[in-house]
Automatic annotation (TrEMBL):
Pfam families registered for this protein in UniProt: DAO
Residue ranges of the TM segments: none
SUPFAM superfamilies for this protein: FAD-linked reductases, C-terminal domain (SSF54373), FAD/NAD(P)-binding domain (SSF51905)
UniProt keyword terms in alphabetical order: Oxidoreductase
Origin species: Paragemmobacter amnigenus
Protein name stated in the entry: FAD-binding oxidoreductase
Classification via InterPro entries: FAD-dep_OxRdtase (IPR006076), FAD/NAD-bd_sf (IPR036188)
Domain FAD dependent oxidoreductase: 5-328
Amino acid sequence: MARVDLTVMGGGIFGLSCAWEATRRGARIRVIERHGIGAGSSGGLVGALAPHVPENWNAKKQFQLESLLMAPDWWAEIAATGGVDAGYLRSGRLQPVPDDRALANARARVDEARALWQHHADWRVIPATGAAWEPHSPTGWLIHDTLTARLSPRRAAEALVAALRARGAVIDIGDHTPDGPTLWATGHQGLMDLNARFGQPVGVGVKGQALLLQHDARDLPQLFADALHIVPHADGTTAIGSTSENTWSDPAATDAQLDDILTRARAALPVLREAPVIDRWAGIRPRARTRAPMLGAWPDRAGHYIANGGFKIGFGMAPKVAQTMADLILDGRDTIPAAFRVEANLQARGR
């Protein structure tokens, strides 16, 4: 095959997004995915692109904000290029306010959100109306943020693949060997390989389980209730997730913990009680030691780079991660926040 400018190892959200951004800048790209597109945690169901609470601002929250604000145009260009829509919508989110203390905190964040989110979105405290698509609120008040968005994870991967191929990128499935500059975006297994390579833990896997219901609320906001994300999708389904499990016997098996999620979701939102379950999913999500995405050059391995650790926020962070890694690899411009750097996940630098 013709020589490429960059090989991307991994067909999950970070790998495909970084490959897409590189093609936008004219690079010749090869993506190698050993198992299948979205075979890891990027093949899930939920797709909640939710911001952190607008307080105690830091570099991670700023990075996420910039990524969420990039997302509408970013996903629209991908859809226009490849002809596949990821189901992106800035749908907003409702969550109940459980008690008076939480209500006071929520109201205090209204002005803070306006300033920190730079007037691009609102954090509101609104009265509950008792509508069918509202979780019960003990105080009678709901938080409504207008920054939260959604997409279909599997559809997003399909959209990226279609756009990459339309731009001439090569996508190989199977056990292929990279050549030349290489970005490693290999998810949970990649973190385990890095642990062995560095001789210390730089990340772990956390199992998640989620399910999909046949319930059409496609134009309604997401809900966050009883620690669950309830996410309507463009195809007339609603996703519910997810668990966070540090121990497991079978990484791909669903079990009673997912049944508990379904029970809690139906209790929080009675309109879902008769909605049939049409899919169940389990997988291992990569969590870097700092809990932020792990980005940057691979220490002591010239020409190799790492993008990993998108635990729970990978799809929301993807546009900015892709931009940041393309800046580094293609343009030699390093804008990676200190907490995101590969070295930040090492207990002793330089190993």
